Amino acid sequence: MNRAKHLNVENVTLAYGEDDIVHNASLSLDKGEIGCLLGPSGCGKSTLLRAIAGFEPVKSGHISMRGQLLSNPQDRVPTEQRKIGMVFQDIALFPHLSISENIVFGIKKWSKSDQKRRVQELLTLIGLPDIADRYPHSLSGGQQQRVALARAMAPKPDLLLLDEPFSGLDANLRETLVPEIRDILRKEQMSAILVTHDQMEAFAMADKIAVMQNGRIQQCGTAFNIYHEPKTRFVADFIGLGEFLQASIKDEYSVDSVLGCLVGDEPLGYAPGTPVELLIRPDDIQHCEESPLTGRIVSKWFRGSHYLYHVQLDNGEVLPCITACHHDHDVGEDLGISIELDHLVVLPICDPETGLCDLQESEVVQTQAIAR
Ligand SMILES: Nc1ncnc2c1ncn2[C@@H]1O[C@H](COP(=O)(O)OP(=O)(O)OP(=O)(O)O)[C@@H](O)[C@H]1O
């Protein structure tokens, strides 16, 4: 049986005036799932979020929640009737209201006893049970953002929209707050969509990530999928670190490259001799003192628990390589490396002038790989 998704965004195109900003976007969430729109500035994340909230009309396609139509080109359920809560970057608590009055703001129609119970329930949930009578100015930024979340969650909305809620906070605070907020949402079984350009936030928070570029969802999947199985050059480039090695299809399952012949267990889908690019992540290349394969260190970053080196091979290609931080080598030294590829990620060569590859062809093939 094909059960309706909690949220369904189907083939949605959005425009400002004559300009299409979001093209044919599709995304769905189950109840309690946390989704994320991830992409660079200006790619259309907030515009799509605003359409889900009901602030923007859809030009084509439709948005529905719990089986009920919210938007199509003819009809739009007003924002205030959508049962959607919102949390923004600027925390915007009402400064003249106490914390409990702030939280009660969206549930004023509830009975006083229910309001009181809900406020205490939420304050306990956000780990600040004793602040009901305090005012926003007396709280830290992280505490204020947790209260803003509690205020948005108070009416038990069907969906929570979080538009860059962490970007005003410093890096240390973000690191602790993001998983805390994910846990709070999980405890309330709250479906949510986070908008961010920060992939670590997306990875820490979301069950499902939609990577956007120029108004298009390039790929939608788990953090693991989009990191290890990117479907386009853009996703491979935008998510995580990595380098592209020139390679050539050898046969159905293998490519030739400067690292030798790499073999996968899935057909690569290209004719022998086709030039392709092979994605290499830093964790695919390990330091190995005894390895006959070496690269000259051209850059070195200290990352606390490890070093990230870039090493240049004899043919000039540069590869990333992670080592434990006791392997402290200098730029200019030769580093022994071994290849630890779990799977092959092979992409067609992009046009060097336009940077474009045929989308049809840019479907990536990943295979379990062994070096031989
Ligand atoms: N009200 C508007 N009228 C016309 N164009 C707009 C409007 N709002 C946004 N845009 C344009 O639409 C495009 C997408 O903007 P949007 O804010 O959705 O991107 P974003 O991915 O959320 O970016 P950021 O991460 O910087 O907030 C941008 O080119 C932006 O200039």
TrEMBL record:
Matching SMART domains: AAA
UniProtKB keywords: ATP-binding, Cell membrane, Ion transport, Iron, Iron transport, Membrane, Nucleotide-binding, Transport
PROSITE patterns in the record: ABC_TRANSPORTER_1, ABC_TRANSPORTER_2
Gene Ontology terms for molecular function: ATP binding
Pfam families, A to Z: ABC_tran (PF00005), TOBE_2 (PF08402)
InterPro entries with a match to the protein in the record: AAA+_ATPase (IPR003593), ABC_SmlMolc_Importer (IPR050093), ABC_transporter-like_ATP-bd (IPR003439), ABC_transporter-like_CS (IPR017871), ABC_transpr_FbpC (IPR015853), Mo/tungstate-bd_C_term_dom (IPR008995), P-loop_NTPase (IPR027417), Transp-assoc_OB_typ2 (IPR013611)
Highest taxon above the source species: Bacteria
The name this protein goes by in its record: ABC transporter ATP-binding protein
Source species taxonomy: Bacteria, Pseudomonadati, Pseudomonadota, Gammaproteobacteria, Oceanospirillales
